[in-house]
Write a structure and sequence with these properties.
The structure is a homohexamer. Chain A has ten helices and seven strands. Chain A is of the alpha/beta class. In chain A, about 60% of the residues are buried. Chains A, B, C, D, E, F: This is Uronate dehydrogenase.
Chain lengths: ~280, ~280, ~280, ~280, ~280, ~280
Amino acid sequence: MSTRADTVPQKPVLLTGASGALGRVLTRALGEQGWTLRLTDRVPFPDQLPEGARFQLADLEDGPAILRLAEGCGTILHFGGISVEHPFETVIGPNIRGLYHAYEAARREGARMVFASSNHAIGFHERTEVLDDDCALAPDGYYGLSKAYGEMMGGLYRHKHGVESVFLRIGSCFPEPTDARMLATWLSYGDMTRLVMRATLAPTLGPSGTAVIWGASKNSRMTWWRRDGRETIGWAPQDSADSYAAALEGKTSGNPVAERYQGGGFTALDYSRSEPPR
Amino acid sequence: MSTRADTVPQKPVLLTGASGALGRVLTRALGEQGWTLRLTDRVPFPDQLPEGARFQLADLEDGPAILRLAEGCGTILHFGGISVEHPFETVIGPNIRGLYHAYEAARREGARMVFASSNHAIGFHERTEVLDDDCALAPDGYYGLSKAYGEMMGGLYRHKHGVESVFLRIGSCFPEPTDARMLATWLSYGDMTRLVMRATLAPTLGPSGTAVIWGASKNSRMTWWRRDGRETIGWAPQDSADSYAAALEGKTSGNPVAERYQGGGFTALDYSRSEPPR
Amino acid sequence: MSTRADTVPQKPVLLTGASGALGRVLTRALGEQGWTLRLTDRVPFPDQLPEGARFQLADLEDGPAILRLAEGCGTILHFGGISVEHPFETVIGPNIRGLYHAYEAARREGARMVFASSNHAIGFHERTEVLDDDCALAPDGYYGLSKAYGEMMGGLYRHKHGVESVFLRIGSCFPEPTDARMLATWLSYGDMTRLVMRATLAPTLGPSGTAVIWGASKNSRMTWWRRDGRETIGWAPQDSADSYAAALEGKTSGNPVAERYQGGGFTALDYSRSEPPR
Amino acid sequence: MSTRADTVPQKPVLLTGASGALGRVLTRALGEQGWTLRLTDRVPFPDQLPEGARFQLADLEDGPAILRLAEGCGTILHFGGISVEHPFETVIGPNIRGLYHAYEAARREGARMVFASSNHAIGFHERTEVLDDDCALAPDGYYGLSKAYGEMMGGLYRHKHGVESVFLRIGSCFPEPTDARMLATWLSYGDMTRLVMRATLAPTLGPSGTAVIWGASKNSRMTWWRRDGRETIGWAPQDSADSYAAALEGKTSGNPVAERYQGGGFTALDYSRSEPPR
Amino acid sequence: MSTRADTVPQKPVLLTGASGALGRVLTRALGEQGWTLRLTDRVPFPDQLPEGARFQLADLEDGPAILRLAEGCGTILHFGGISVEHPFETVIGPNIRGLYHAYEAARREGARMVFASSNHAIGFHERTEVLDDDCALAPDGYYGLSKAYGEMMGGLYRHKHGVESVFLRIGSCFPEPTDARMLATWLSYGDMTRLVMRATLAPTLGPSGTAVIWGASKNSRMTWWRRDGRETIGWAPQDSADSYAAALEGKTSGNPVAERYQGGGFTALDYSRSEPPR
Amino acid sequence: MSTRADTVPQKPVLLTGASGALGRVLTRALGEQGWTLRLTDRVPFPDQLPEGARFQLADLEDGPAILRLAEGCGTILHFGGISVEHPFETVIGPNIRGLYHAYEAARREGARMVFASSNHAIGFHERTEVLDDDCALAPDGYYGLSKAYGEMMGGLYRHKHGVESVFLRIGSCFPEPTDARMLATWLSYGDMTRLVMRATLAPTLGPSGTAVIWGASKNSRMTWWRRDGRETIGWAPQDSADSYAAALEGKTSGNPVAERYQGGGFTALDYSRSEPPR
């Protein structure tokens, strides 16, 4: 990985989920930086392709197709798959099997994985807890479980095959924050883009070969997340949700479960536990 | 769970994987204790059924069938699925989807899950490390990953639905130890049976509602595993591999990876990392 | 079922096929009545959700998801699945497997099933026959066969598990009648809605535990259908197709098979019998 | 069908499920009669093939293969599929989809279907009821439901495509009766063979084009089954279970559900209805 | 086949892929000729149906449905399936399995197959080669491979079952040519329509029973394709791309692989061979 | 490929279908030569593994597993899949999809493919024809079609990706010949083994990069097969069926189709063509 350049990766970069919201933001931004992009999704790419980008329809569940798309790539930005809570059977194909295909591709190529994990992989930690990057995984649904599975698979592929991974535990990545929780968890498109760039370009992830990054902007209300790998990759958020505070701070869910846990509303979906936790 | 009796559970107990090696041992032993057993497997049960036991062919991938088998049960002993390393595609159906079905059943019934997890869920810890039950998961293959996934799913079902789980991180459960590593990891059939009984009968798992148990007999060479939930459930191993030491202690694998990590030979399967770890 | 209230069911009601034509009509009408609705479909719900309604995407072929959606429900309005004639392979998944999931859910919940059956379950009776609710099933295609299968499954679940079922043998449920046959078979949206309400709210279905209802409005040309369970549930149609008679009575199909049998055009699809029937 | 000969059908006969118990009995017996047999099963045929017989491995779920096997055949003896109670998901493939393939084949060939239905298609009638062939279908499980589905599909294919069907509602077809219920329901191998021969050779099934036959030997304890199509096809049983009465009449199940209903033990499997029926 | 009439086939014609671009052109044109058309596709037909045409939704992977649609047809125009290069897994279902279903239908009906093959079945011949209809198959991707497979299956069905086939190796069939290569390979809609008509109506395909036709209009730049079966079926192209030459002749791909081989751009997709061919 | 050694390949060799008859012969023979073998099959390997051999259970339909098994291999001996005529649906998975996985593996590794093709890929040539290696493919069933598909895929992978292939058109490879046709087509185990060795070890396949070999021993009655690539790879058969001639020459099939065509009995299976060919 010593050959990673300062602003443009030496090898092509594969982006899965290219036709999704974050995929389109990344395609535009990375294309403007002059990156050589291989894009894929199971639905057509809706925008103009940047120069140097190629798009190929493929299903994440089609292993040989994903392995083939990754050939020659030095980094896989794995943003494909289901991105909100859904029944188990809807999640398993794209997010469990699809993830395996992405990691097999990374192993074959000796590529680094930049994996769009989620705060929902640790959503059942309470908001009063302060988490470092070695906190226990505590998924808050089938979606979160698929992300936690992905981080563990990343560990396996590191131990056994030397594959590097950056796990982006993305908070809430939208054009702007829209409720009180996002005053803490919001990740601006700009910060997200720079995070992906640094995760890709960082010459090393240190001796462990993996890095967890808490994916939130410089929000003063984000008090739950502390130590992570941002210095290793050279990233710091620049944007902040603070200016939205006046408009949004009263906009809470009213659900005591959702307000108690870091995962917010996802933790309250189908919540059926009667006795108080702990 | 306050109604769990001393030696015989008040409600029937579902045992998956009943036709496998450990399933057959459990069926015989628990049947002799007078337990009411519901047995299932995807292949016929090869032995005489104990009194009070019912067997039903079912595939772990058939969700409604598993949910139905569990009706009225107070405990699920989930021993079904693939039990050694295999390609991902072989593991995902019985061990990931099948596990989900078992947990859905536990949730529906308010049943306790006793899950046959494995040391391979943490196999990439080195043998020089001493692990407590809150150590990081570190699976050593697709099989181990499915076990780690199961423990996380257990956490999710505890947080969201109040389902209790005992995770048995079984070492090496065979009639007798057969190599040097098993001098540490061996779990005798008797200790395994008593462990399952205590996991089922323990009136409470404490405030966390989950317990991890290191599944090894009282082997003096087992120096890697320390604190766990055995006191909570009231179990202590009685057997020991020590008497096999003279015969087996030279019987090591000769593979430096296998000898370095707790997971033994599984960690060395397909191992392709070139640089030294850490 | 003694706790069924007069106008609002005491327990939530699950409606499958909520995004379809009849599903949307029911959602609006029952929502206005203040019912607590759980809605599901495999495509998003296109309208504003009424207060007290929750929508969850799910595939009828995903058994555990359907079972979970039904938890706590006292009635299942099963309007999902394929609703016109299609090749067998298109019908079997949503209408045979999906039906099984709906009935498993009803059994698990002790819920009553209100099943959108169809005149096509008995479509091969001739129009000159007068049918009571114990007439033989005589499906007129793969779709009708799936509905007849559903009624038999309802009988099985009643016998074996005590599940109550109302089988709505719906004639032609559209905003208004559009051909001569519908002068007999038309069921207005209003009558359909009231029928579903009574099927849900009726305190008992009598000793048999099942009721068949001929689903037609008060059309004077409907001379084929006679005795059914409408008194048991307390429903009578209020609307009539009669005012459309002048405009539509000449609008027949011109196909002798279609005109001979109660199922109309469905009976003539792919009809290949050469000799005259009977 | 006017060309059906007295003892040997003019066209080849397709037998599905040839490698099963009844299939092997039929193969031997019909082969000895000089019939031209096409045999199929998903497992190899274990016996010596009679002269004039051809065997082809095929899965009932493979439609084009089944359609092809039936080419040129004048009769399909459909004995394939699951033959005892199993979870729904195990039954649907071979017994629902497989049945459709068999009926499509019959339609394409203008062949007569001789369908191994079962008493379990009507198993929830009580033993005190006397049934004629037009009694309501009352399946006693998923297996029985698949048989009832088959009879309804036979009706559909008769109405729409002119396909003739003989529905053999087989009681208990074993080498000899083994419990008290079989004193009523036993069908000897000889009677079964002669029944299949007559069902195949009968020149006509009368104007309805379908015939139901109660498949029991001349057992004096069979008091539940009365009128059927045996005269139409020219069959009468010759054997009797009566000589086993002394040995077996005390051998009842002891289960009140099983003893109440015609379907016997199948009706009691998973029986969960609390209140008394009727 | 001696009964094929001059302008209207005596038996109905099945057209698969009816809702696609070429399918719609054919439906309109053949409908205007008074042909009796059976149309099918997996998506609804978007246009007004011509008189005498019937449309049925069906999936090419549903064998019995395709076999049934073809009943009574004398010709199958197989234009369904994937029509451009895609990953193998996307192609195999519609184009390999679907093709088998189409050929099984042709065999059952004794129908002639008119198969929309493609120049991509021979795309890896160089443009300097002059090909006759007995040239070696040389597919240029998974799509082309499925077309070559189809031609071989046609040969098999001819040898074994006497099925006649016309293989249309279509060049580029679009409203008008849009690049330099199409100055050679363009097939006008009119020429394509007349080709399909002649392929259907030709009384005989000669002793071999199969005919390959190079599907290009009368373009003076088409110098690669020579002898074929056009005289046998009585077709000659009438249109020409020549008038587009001035506008398009500089519009080449710039890719040396694409320019070298007859298959054009398809040959260059994923091209990874390093050394020079031959 | 310049590094292929004289007797032992420099890189490991992957053998699919290792547990089959030919696979076991090859494993033993190549193991004795000191080759480094990777073996795979979907059923366990029944024999003692030679030194230097590794066996891994895997399904040919599991693409990533096959790709992974091939890593580091310089040659793939593709002997897996269905090896006799079966219905299409039985063949497509292992032989079409499985083949694709084998070729993808070869492409990824830059490995040479040694493909167990078959005389059934050209079985519909008459025995009076003399074939060179550039003869037209003429498969004689679904099995033969899968072999012809494989040869075409080999051509595609050569053209597009530079993959070398040796196509072994195996005649009849059994311990000894057992009928008259095998006096021509028999390939002894010894000749087969030497053929595979030469196909693997040959330093080059010449400029075309592919070679077809007629897989028959030095039988004087083999008069149909002439020119092929044996000189290029340096193979000549040493054994002969001639000594069996006296015992077998009268042992013909008696079927005129089977006797006419090179494919023998396979060409006569389901043969339904009425008019005489040609």
